[in-house]
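Bit of a strange request maybe. I'm writing a small parser for structure token strings and I need a real example to test against, not something I typed by hand. Could someone generate the tokens for this chain?
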Amino acid sequence: MSDAIDIKTLKAFLDGNHKAFETVFVAYYDKTKVFIDGYIKSEPDAEELTEDLFVNLWINRHSIDTSKSFNSYLHTIARNAAINFLQHKYVHDTYLMNNQNIEYSSTSEEDLIAKELGILINELVEKMPEQRKMIYTLSRNDGLTNSEIAERLNTTKRNVESQLSLALKEIRKAIPYFLISIL
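Reply from user aminoacidic:
Good idea to test on real output. This should exercise your parser:
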């Protein structure tokens, strides 16, 4: 991925200019998708990861450090997205492989781990800001769509998506530490 945008466009993007974001997207989307595909070897998944990356780039644009190379920043988050995807895929595939052709009946240890994980998630949700907690609860416990939540809370669908994404990110960040602590 090479520097394809100028500093003026980057600053406009960081200030929330949609046209500048479009320029950044057009300049980097294909290169980023090819880069991620090189890691994960799945074009549909690479496309989805790249789209998610750009959505998160827009949401978190205020945290981008302009004193450092945007190209390096984008390269790093693309690499991390690919690595995270592969780690989740490995865990998922390992789980499926180990449980294939096995009639599932949970052990008391598995039940305990599941219960402790549920408690951890509930504790994390309780510590979230009020709106994020409410959005997460309406989504996961009540099964409402993002549009329904936005309507119920009198906010935008984009805000609901952003808050839900942040909530899930907090939970995903805590789960590996929990799993390491029990092993």
